[in-house]
Design a protein that fits this description.
The protein has 9 helices and 15 strands. It has 333 residues and is an alpha/beta fold. The protein binds zinc ion.
């Protein structure tokens, strides 16, 4: 979809759309702005406009085209809830979750979490592209100092959570074989079947679902809810070296203990959560975000089992509700 195609969109919202947006404004508590404070909390710094380029100078990610989101009030053509969420998703950079745990947000549709361990740092999810992951690591190093990567964790099988792994692990680290790559059971089977075997069809449909080629603007692409849109750039799938097989499995990574919970057939066919006792931090991957996740992805990914999904959240609450003091996810704020 090109700029020309988007000009076919109506210039003004129709009367039923205006009425629906007015009803939304009335029904929901828009005066509650705590999410804006939460989204900005812990901000340490960023890259201008979250702009990331490839070695050839191609822009793989930038929030610059979304400058039109500066108005607090939604224009008539955009649903007020989407407008609010799209403004929240303009927060970008490195954020402190708790001292010792940091997140890179807004440099991709997904988040990267960096957990400081005894000697190094554990990287949870590596964004969509190698270029994006490199930029995220540089931003982290700039604010927290250079640390070696002690482990990589993939929370689930969607490309925006593993595609950039080669931007986190360089040739030397890969050759040493010393850095474990941890993922939920059946990770490769599902990552390959969704993204490689079904890849070309799924990618084409994802382009309709997320609208990356639509012109950005109040009559074009605004946001996807979870984040801005699909990122461009180079992608490489790395095979995990250690699979988490069961709820209750533990690992000690560079002196830091992790407790895992399996969450298969939730937001992804292979997905997992974890708790870090030292940080009293719960990470619920992409299963608990500040927005209502779709259950039937238009791009043709597996239909999600809503009942199983809700049970995993209940189980997480039972396992760690009394211990956790902070929670983070791998998408949105
Ligand atoms: Zn996902």
């Amino acid at each position: 979809m090109t700029e020309a195609a988007s000009t076919k969109a109506p210039k003004e919202a129709s009367a039923p759309v205006v009425a629906r947006h007015a009803a939304t404004l009335k029904a929901l508590p828009f005066s509650d702005t705590r999410d804006f404070e939460d989204a900005a909390r812990g901000f340490l710094g960023t890259v201008e406009n979250a702009r990331i380029t490839s070695a050839q100078g191609r822009v793989v990610w930038s929030l610059e085209p979304y400058g039109f989101l500066s108005d607090a009030e939604a224009p008539p053509t955009v649903d007020p809830s989407l407008w609010r969420q799209s403004r929240l998703n303009m927060n970008h950079g490195i954020f402190e979750v708790v001292p010792g745990v940091y997140q890179i947000r807004g440099l991709d549709i997904a988040n990267m979490t960096l957990i400081e361990s005894e000697r190094g740092v554990i990287v949870v999810d590596t964004l969509t592209s190698i270029e994006g992951a490199r930029a995220a690591m540089e931003l982290y190093f700039r604010h927290r100092g250079r640390r070696s990567v002690a482990a990589v964790i993939f929370t689930h099988t969607h490309t925006d959570h593993w595609g950039g792994a080669r931007g986190v692990l360089d040739d030397e680290t890969m050759a040493s074989g010393k850095v474990p790559i941890i993922a939920p059971n059946l990770f490769m089977e599902h990552a390959v079947s969704e993204n490689i075997i079904a890849g070309p069809a799924m990618l084409r449909r994802a382009q309709y679902q997320f609208g990356p080629f639509l012109a950005k603007g109040v009559r074009g692409q605004v946001d996807c809810g979870l984040g801005k849109s699909m990122a461009a750039g180079s992608v490489a799938l790395l095979r995990p070296t250690d699979l988490i097989m069961a709820t209750g499995d533990k690992r000690t990574l560079d002196g830091l203990e992790f407790e895992f919970q399996m969450a298969p057939n939730s937001e992804a066919p292979a997905e997992m959560h974890f708790f870090i006792p030292r940080y009293k931090l719960l990470n619920l991957a992409e299963n608990c975000t500040h927005n209502f996740h779709n259950l039937l992805p238009f791009r043709g990914a597996d239909v999600r089992d809503a009942l199983a999904w809700s049970k995993y959240l209940g189980e997480a609450l039972q396992m760690w509700g009394g211990k956790a003091e902070a929670m983070c996810g791998q998408q949105s704020l």
